[in-house]
Amino acid sequence: MPAVTVADITVLPRVSEVPGARARSVKSVTTAPQGYEGEGFPVRRTFAGIDMAELDPFIMMDQMGEVEYAPGEPKGTPWHPHRGFETVTY
To answer: 5 pLDDT exceeds 80?
Structure first.
């Protein structure tokens, strides 16, 4: 899918309501468990242990917190496929 462009980036574009779409209620409010990803950097995985059928349209939502590393110490993650996942950072 190509990138969406707008004339004025200070104005949010309106999205038409999808026919047949319905609102869903909040099922639960939880605190994301903290763990480690890749080579050991901390992450909170919001949707840990939740049935995939209940996540649509999301697949995962992770919070990578603030971390301070010394020079040469940053930890990453080895190559892994996301196969079409769109990354949203916040």
So the answer is: no
